Amino acid sequence: MKIRTETVRALADLASLELAPEEVERMRRDLDAILAYVDKLSELDTSDVPPTAHVLDISTPLRPDQVRDVLPVSEVVRNAPDHDDTSMIVPKVIE
Amino acid sequence: MNPLAAATLDELAGLVERGEASCRDVVAACLERIDQTNGALGALLHVRRQEALDEAEAADAARARGEARGPLHGLPLVIKDNLVSPDFEVTCASRILRGFRSPYEATVLRRAREAGLVILATANMDEFAMGSSCENSSVRACANPWDTSRVPGGSSGGSAAALAARATPAALGSDTGGSIRQPAAHCGVVGMKPTYGRVSRYGLVAFASSLDQIGPLARTVRDAALLLGVIAGHDERDSTSVDAPVPDYAAALGRDLGGLRVGVPREFFSSEGADQGTLERVRAAIAVLEEAGAKTVPVSLPTSQYGIAAYYLICTAEASSNLSRYDGVKYGFRAPASDYREMYRRTRSQGFGAEVKRRILLGTFVLSAGYYDAYYQKAQRVRTLIRRDFERAFESCDLLATPTTPGPAWPLGERLDDPLAMYLSDVFNVTVNLAGLPAVSIPCGFSEEGLPTGFQLIGPALAEERLLQAGDAYQRRTDWHCRAPEL
Lengths: 95, 487
What we know:
The complex is a heterodimer of chains A (95) and B (487). The longest helix of chain A has 18 residues, at 21-38. In chain A, helix 1 (5-14) crosses helix 2 (21-38). Chain A has helices at residues 5-14, 21-38, 73-77. Chain A contains three helices and no strands. Helix content of chain B is 39%, strand content 12%. In chain B, helix 5 links the parallel strand 2 (76-80) and strand 3 (118-123). Chain B is globular and about 65 Å long. The N and C termini of chain B lie close together (10 Å). Classes of the chains: A mainly alpha (95), B alpha/beta (487). Chains A and B meet through helix 1 and helix 2 of A and helix 10, helix 11, helix 12, helix 13 and helix 14 of B.
């Protein structure tokens, strides 16, 4: 399929990316070339083939629900660009 | 060059054990090599100069008291810049994680610390491990020690280049679609991707979670075996971790290969797929395995030609999801903005490089309504076919031997404007990740321009021991791994 400029803009919006006009064109061209290449998968009949969910036969492990030590909040928020002792500070979300 | 910088991890363990060298001398020799080479190579990002010397001295003191934690206590280790630690900055070579210092420690680093290894430096990489040349680093492109006008491969290019430059005897990398094996081949060192789940991914910054695996890089198979023994094992903090005993990998080495059946997949030896010199050197390597007692078996992996297509749909889908966490809120870089939507967009646009954006957009596309079945689901079905190919091949052989790369390292910049050409440099690697199998790349000669070639051994799940035995038997009969670049 052909990738159009509007498609790249819509994808960028979904992915929270801002692209300059020349970046949009560059990405359009690249995605177009990559998708043209991956179309070779359509040569394979996979109608009776199940998709891979996990490469190894393992099930989700369970453990007892026990209280354990967790990281102190002050340590976790320390990496936020803006924070106090207990919170990450962000621009206002709800008016 | 100081002989301590050129020594292998195993040799250093012997020297230190016999009191013929101190760990401090070893670390100092590596630091000297870093000073001599890193300006030209850009292999290492954050060098823990004083901390590494102090930790090595403490290890010497512990050994003098008879309290060594093991043979590797006090010896240096370089880690890829995507393994988190509370002790230093880890950024995935991305602007968006600049200044990030994790509140917790990756399990592989905890295990390395418990074995007494000293973290010497973090290694350059393609941003978020997305790339095959180590040029997509927000810090600087890394160069190949054999020819500094060429790429070292990627994404673990810094780890491989530092080893080849004799700036460290050991390194860790991560491999999502060849990111350990391909740079190992291009730099003339050994690199192993273990079975998916063999090594805990806890504390590895996620790129494509169903494919990522941490593994060792070293100059010899024996050193890789020593390192794998340190980092492998079950971890309840990684729900995909395999709960299987860890063999003593190094103890299993030194044997010959009587009766070992080496499968040679014909699709990996076509003249359209790889250059003639590479194929000749890999065939010669297989002949050495035969001298060591192995028998070759022709096999076929017919779906392998679809590997790159399936891989780039699956890895980008997973990446677009994993990288949604970088939004300027929790860590790293935040762009100034008046509202939160603008903060997300500006932070991500200024924080990510071009290849990361390209993969996020592609992944967003293949997961979006209307395209999910045609692209993502289709790729996961093809992945099943690729796994079945390997299962069928391993009915008639014990391991597979292939080239690691289609050709030698290419000039810096050559493939930056052609993402597809860059992706195709991993054509012999990605099916291994899609199937979750272990594989190792081992140096097997040089091109006419003097650039290293590697061959790849692939095994069934959890057959690391067998791969290492075969690789070690090869290295006992060859000396490619002893050659060092002039630098």
